[in-house]
Amino acid sequence: MSETALPKEDLDQPAIDAPVETPPPVVPRRGNGLAVVALLLGAAGVAVGGWGVWQVRHLQTNNQQQSAQVQALNDQAQSLKLNEQRLSERLAQLPPAEELEERRRLVTQLQSDQQHLNQRLETVLGASRKDWRLAEAEHLLRLASLRLSALQDINSAQALVQGADEILREQNDPGSFAAREQLAKTLAALRSTEQPDRTGLFLQLGALRDQVLELTELAPEYKDRGESLLGLTADGDGASRWAQWWDQISRYIRIDFNADENVRPLLAGQSLVQVRLALSLALEQAQWAALNGQAPVYTQALTEARDVLKNNFNQDNPQSKIMLERVGELSRQPVTVVTPDLTGTLSSVQAYLERRNLNAQESVKPLPAPGAQEATP
C-alpha cells in the first residue's frame, strides 16, 4: 500500500513521460437483434398457425358441402332409379313393335278418312246453306204474291221481291239468269204501280163522320095548310069529286113556281137524328170498303152519303156544302189497283231450284270404303 500510494501532488500533475491510453472501441450488443428476430419468428409462427386453422375450417366446410352434394346426388340417383324402374314397368306393358306399327297405320288411315269426311261435310253444309237461302227466296215470293192478292200492298210486295232478287244475286250462279230476269220485270211493274192511300182515306172519312154530329140545319119542310088549288070550288059543283081527290094528293105533291129556290121536303116521319145516323152509316161503310179494297162498295156508300146530304140538308148552309164537296172528292180517290201477277216469277224460281237440285244429286258421289285405299297398290 505504501509503495503504490502516491502523494497528492504527484497525482495532480500529469506525468509527461507516461503514454496516453486510448479507450477501447465500443462493441455493439448482440442481444437486441436476437430479440427482433425472435419476435419476427413468433409472428410468422402465429400467422402460419392462423392460416392453418383457416385452412382446416375451410376444409371442414368443403367436406360438409361435399357431403350435402353427395347426399343430393344419392337422392337423385334414387329418384332416377325409381323412374327407371317405372319406365321399365311401362315398357313392359307396351305392346310389341309390330303391334305399334299396325296401330300407327290404322291411325293414319283414320286421319285420312276423317279428312275426307270433313271435306264432304263442308260441301254438304255449304250446299245446305245455299238451299236454305234459295228456299227463303221462294218463301219471300210466296209472301209477296199473298200480299198483292189479299191486301194489294204494293210497297211490301216490292220489298219482298227485292229480297228474293238479292238472295239469287248472292248465289252467283249463271243458271239463275232466267229467274232473275223475271224478278227484274216484276220489280219494274211494281215500281210503276201506284199504291192507294187506304189508311189516309179511312182517316179522312172518319173525320167526316165526326162532323156529321155538327150538322143542324135541315132542308125546308113543306107544310100543308089544308088548302088546294080548287079550294074555291063549291061542294055542290060537279067538280067537287075532283077537288077532293086533288086535296088528297096535294099533301104529297108540291108545285114550285120558283125553281131557283132549293126547297126539298123531308120524308114522312124523318127527323134530324135519323138523317145523321143514315149519313154516318154510309161513311162507315165507305171506311170499311177503303180498308178492304172494295171499290164498288166504296163508290156506292159515298153515293148514298152524297144523296143524303143533297136531299136532307140545306145546300145554302156552308157546313153542308163543304161536306158534300169533300164526299165528292173522296169518291174519286182509288181504293183498288191492278197488281202485277207473280205466278210466272214464282214458277221461274221454282224451276231454277229444281234444276239446281238435280245437278247437285248428279254431282254427289258415294264415299269410298275404308279398305279401298289399302287394296290400291
Description of the molecule:
It contains 12 helices and no strands. It is mainly alpha-helical. Among the domains are: 109-194 and 339-367, Four Helix Bundle (Hemerythrin (Met), subunit A) (Up-down Bundle), CATH 1.20.120; 196-223 and 262-336, no CATH class. The chain crosses the membrane at residues 33-54. Residues 56-90 form a coiled coil. Residues 1-25 are annotated as: Disordered. Pfam families: HemX.
Briefly say what this structure is.
The chain has 377 residues and is mostly helical.
- Quick one: CATH class of the domain at 109-194 and 339-367? Mainly Alpha
Average pLDDT, rounded to a whole number, is 77
| Total E-strand runs | 0
Number of helices: 12
Coiled coil: 56-90
Region (Disordered): 1-25
Keywords: Coiled coil, Membrane, Methyltransferase, Transferase, Transmembrane, Transmembrane helix
GO molecular function: methyltransferase activity
Set out the fold topology.
Blueprint lengths: L7 H5 L18 H63 L3 H54 L3 H18 L5 H15 L6 H15 L27 H10 L22 H21 L2 H18 L5 H14 L11 H21 L6 H6 L2
Helix pairs in contact: 3-4, 3-11, 4-5, 5-11, 6-8, 6-10, 8-9, 9-10
GO molecular function, one term: methyltransferase activity
Protein name: Uroporphyrin-III methyltransferase
GO biological process, one term: methylation
